[in-house]
Design a protein that fits this description.
Radius of gyration: 22 Å
Strand content: 25-35%
CATH architecture of the largest domain: 3-Layer(aba) Sandwich
Structural class: alpha+beta
Largest sheet: 14 strands, mixed
Order of helices and strands: EEHHEEHEHEEHEHHEHHEEHHEHEHE
CATH topology of the largest domain: Aminopeptidase
Number of strands: 14
């Protein structure tokens, strides 16, 4: 326990289940009346449990800040990902799950605690918010606060960036969320297709084929995605990337892949001597937040029934990942995957596709989004500090 006598604040490390519950439930009061969407509590609990394979190569620390009335006024987590340190050869630690009242004393107390923890591990550079790794929620929202987030995308208060600046943090990187009008994108595709050729005829001139995911082989499909993801991101030294282990990837994605429509998970394959070699993929799924925002963080039998009944009515989707093997870059695979995804969404009655997130310096992904009418409508920012 650390007391800040000047501000009547108390800092405690989260060490027991009761404290973890207070840590997880704090945002529910903080964001009441905003566009924030409550996360599923059991999913967040599972992330922090020691059984999570992510903790085989990462360490964490969690803190809560209390006022003199023993009310929670802030929280933060610190992370050291050994796979990231080894791959990047950079001594960088991360902070995440940051939430606090609009009070610089609270923010300072929380951030100093994480920096002190990192300092003891020989780390002098902190970056965030980043919830464990770049593959999880990251960044503070910078605009469009009236709009609710899509699944696995954060929502935060407008005052957070100002608190970071007050604490001496600087911008590290911006992340963009694009919105694509599906109907307009389909019309644009039709206008740019040769009138004498159908898409299937046009694709015959390419040296790859597209297929949708196989629901009967979810683990196999997940491993294909992980392999391409690691090779593509590793080759380009993607920002804050660390290779994802098979255990971690399955733990984090198997439920999602088993849940989503297989036609929204597409693979590109090159055929060599009658063998199908995966060279790219795209993963999209419905905006489940349209339903889960009413669950209050719970997922019992009633919520599951509502989810099953209401999911077919969702008309918004999120493209969360698109990857092409470096050896196949520039071969039109990205455009082909995007085109088929958009046409599939249109056929199923979807109106909007969010492509998120895209790094501010990832020009290839930006051009791909813009090629289909995508426009930046949200920006998220990562902050950093050397200490």
């Amino acid at each position: 326990m650390i007391k800040n006598l000047a501000s009547n604040l108390v800092l405690e490390e989260v060490l027991n289940p009761e404290q973890l519950q207070a840590f997880l439930l704090f945002p529910f009061k903080l964001y009441k009346g905003t566009a924030w969407v409550p996360p599923l509590i059991n999913e967040q609990e599972r992330f922090f449990f020691s059984a999570n394979p992510f903790w085989r190569h990462a360490e964490k620390v969690l803190y809560l800040a209390y006022n003199d009335k023993r009310q929670v006024v802030g929280r933060i987590a610190g992370f050291v990902n050994q796979r990231y340190l080894s791959f990047s050869n950079k001594k960088t630690g991360h902070f995440g799950f940051f939430e606090c009242k609009n009070n610089p004393f609270v923010a300072l107390l929380l951030m100093d605690a994480v920096k002190h923890w990192l300092h003891k591990q020989g780390i002098r550079h902190i970056l965030g918010p980043l919830n464990g790794s770049i593959d999880h929620e990251c960044g503070f929202l910078m605009n469009n606060f009236a709009s609710s987030p899509k699944p696995n995308i954060p929502y935060s208060f407008p005052y957070y960036p100002d608190l970071m600046k007050t604490l001496g943090f600087k911008k590290a990187k911006d992340l963009y969320a694009y919105t694509i009008n599906v109907q307009k994108a389909v019309k644009q595709i039709a206008q740019h297709s040769p009138p004498s050729q159908s898409h299937s005829e046009h694709d015959q001139h390419l040296d790859f084929i597209l297929r949708m995911a196989n629901k009967k082989s979810v683990k196999t499909e997940a491993e294909i995605i992980r392999t391409i993801f690691n090779e593509a991101m590793g080759a380009m030294h993607h920002y804050q990337f660390a290779p994802v282990s098979r255990a971690v990837f399955l733990d984090e994605t198997i439920d999602l892949l088993d849940l989503v429509d297989p036609s929204m998970v597409l693979f590109a394959e090159k055929i060599v001597k009658k063998k199908h070699l995966p060279v790219g993929f795209v993963v999209a799924y419905p905006n489940f937040n349209k339903i889960t925002k009413y669950f209050g963080g719970k997922l019992g039998w009633w919520q599951k029934l509502l989810f099953a009944l209401c999911s077919p009515a969702i008309r918004e989707a999120r493209l969360s990942l698109i990857c092409i093997l470096p050896s196949r870059a520039g071969c039109g695979i990205g455009s082909a995957l995007m085109r088929q995804l958009i046409e599939t969404l249109h056929r199923k009655g979807y109106k909007e596709l969010e492509y998120s997130w895209v790094l501010e310096d990832n020009l290839a992904s930006q051009k791909l989004a813009e090629r289909f009418g995508g426009k930046v409508y949200k920006t998220y920012r990562l902050f950093e500090q050397h200490f």
